[in-house]
């Protein structure tokens, strides 16, 4: 039997190691995700070692204690990109647009472009990994991550992914889920991305919790011509369950998020709780069919189009009310009173209470997370979302 003094010593000796790993554990749909579990946290000493640790089959807790810069590590490509009137020349816009890295240019003109190759090929994350930033130092510059081909049980926490050819559409995606399951994306920041900050499809995204992240759309190159990134989140997985909570989405102009697809077998549940949408000069939600969406306690602040019109007739099932009475109508099905969504200086918000949403989510009650009062969302989300805050 250990004496109290020995236990105390043991705790003191162990605590620095524990503090260096993942903080907390996921709630919502990714609950049970352990990533690298109890593997000893370790810091890679070179870019090659970082790449090997992220992609191999070994259970690992990988500490990101600096900015790892991938730009110029795989060369660059000079070729032609498509410039379109609305997205590159930006007549009357307040920023430049983005040119398109693609093979056809029917509705535009070819221009010469040079882009970094590393940003276009994300690292494939192996199963059982935690990739964790240290303090506010963890940066992946010029390369994203993807979980695919059946890999699962991944935690990505407290890292900033940035600088993926932001001048170009198709310049790179920050996080991709394609044949994944059990992924916790927590307290990260995304900025200056060419294409999507998070994308899933066409394989499944699986059980995913996206919590406390900062989606920072400030850019000099915007497909919206307004200094705000357009391609924010695109969720099109085959069978996906998202808990999306405590995120700060700001200075964006579209797809924040776009989700759902008429791809026949797709089925996506999305529980959006206590997110703060701020200064969106375009649309936040754009929702296609095969979706069941429960939104509660979200705060829309200066959002031009909080939900697009096609979302309302796409076949998507929506429980998105902004009235206290209608929100509380969820309680018989879900066992708690839902929180209303709130708008300030924001376009029209649809008051939908589709019963099918409650029926669907009542099968997944154990995955529903609690909410806080919507009035406190701007302050609490800005204080907690992003890197250096876990
Ligand atoms: C991941 O961990 C689980 C549980 O320990 C194990 O069954 C599985 O084989 C691991 N995957 C890989 C690729 O090592």
Automatic annotation (TrEMBL):
Entry's EC annotation: 4.2.2.10
A Gene Ontology cellular-component term: extracellular region
GO molecular function, one term: pectate lyase activity
Subcellular location: Secreted
Biological process terms in GO annotation: cell wall organization; polysaccharide catabolic process
Pectate lyase domain ranges (all copies): 94-306
Pfam families: Pectate_lyase_4
Annotated signal sequence range: 1-19
Known function: Pectinolytic enzymes consist of four classes of enzymes: pectin lyase, polygalacturonase, pectin methylesterase and rhamnogalacturonase. Among pectinolytic enzymes, pectin lyase is the most important in depolymerization of pectin, since it cleaves internal glycosidic bonds of highly methylated pectins.
Domain of life: Eukaryota
SUPFAM superfamilies: Pectin lyase-like (SSF51126)
Similarity annotation: Belongs to the polysaccharide lyase 1 family.
Protein name: pectin lyase
Membrane spanning residue stretches: none
InterPro entries in alphabetical order: Pec_lyase, Pectin_lyas_fold, Pectin_lyase_fold/virulence, PEL
Catalytic activity: Eliminative cleavage of (1->4)-alpha-D-galacturonan methyl ester to give oligosaccharides with 4-deoxy-6-O-methyl-alpha-D-galact-4-enuronosyl groups at their non-reducing ends
Main location: secreted
Keyword terms: Carbohydrate metabolism, Cell wall biogenesis/degradation, Disulfide bond, Glycoprotein, Lyase, Polysaccharide degradation, Secreted, Signal
């Amino acid at each position: 039997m250990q004496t109290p003094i020995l236990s105390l010593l043991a705790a003191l000796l162990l605590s620095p190691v524990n503090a260096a790993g993942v903080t907390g554990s996921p709630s919502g749909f990714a609950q049970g995700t352990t990533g690298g579990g109890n593997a000893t946290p370790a810091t890679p000493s070179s870019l090659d070692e970082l790449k090997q640790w992220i992609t191999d089959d070994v259970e690992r807790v990988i500490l990101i204690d600096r900015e790892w810069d991938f730009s110029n590590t795989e060369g660059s490509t000079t070729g032609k990109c498509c410039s379109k009137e609305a997205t590159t020349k930006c007549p009357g816009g307040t920023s430049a647009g983005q040119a398109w890295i693609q093979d056809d240019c029917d509705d535009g003109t070819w221009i010469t472009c040079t882009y970094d190759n590393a940003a276009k090929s994300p690292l494939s994350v192996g199963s059982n990994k935690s990739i964790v930033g240290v303090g506010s130092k963890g940066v992946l510059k010029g390369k994203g991550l993807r979980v695919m081909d059946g890999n699962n049980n991944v935690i990505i926490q407290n890292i900033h992914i940035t600088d993926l050819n932001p001048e170009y559409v198709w310049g790179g995606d920050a996080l991709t889920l394609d044949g994944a399951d059990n992924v916790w994306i927590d307290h990260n920041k995304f900025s200056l991305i060419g294409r999507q900050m998070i994308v899933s499809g066409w394989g499944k995204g699986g059980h995913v919790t996206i919590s406390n992240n900062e989606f920072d759309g400030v850019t000099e190159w915007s497909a919206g011509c307004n200094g705000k990134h357009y391609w924010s989140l695109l969720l099109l997985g085959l069978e996906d369950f998202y808990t999306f909570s405590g995120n700060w989405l700001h200075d964006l102009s579209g797809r924040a998020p776009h989700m759902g697809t008429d791809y026949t077998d797709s089925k996506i549940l999305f529980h959006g709780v206590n997110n703060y949408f701020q200064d969106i000069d375009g649309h936040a939600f754009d929702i296609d069919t095969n979706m069941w969406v429960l939104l509660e306690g979200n705060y829309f602040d200066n959002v031009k189009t909080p939900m697009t019109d096609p979302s309302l007739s796409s076949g998507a099932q929506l429980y998105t009310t902004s009235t206290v009475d209608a929100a509380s109508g969820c309680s018989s099905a879900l066992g708690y009173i839902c929180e209303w969504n709130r708008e300030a200086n924001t376009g029209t918000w649809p008051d939908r209470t589709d019963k099918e949403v409650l029926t669907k989510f009542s099968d997944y009650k154990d995955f529903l997370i609690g909410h806080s009062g919507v009035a406190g969302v701007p302050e609490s989300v800005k204080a907690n979302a992003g890197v250096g805050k876990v």
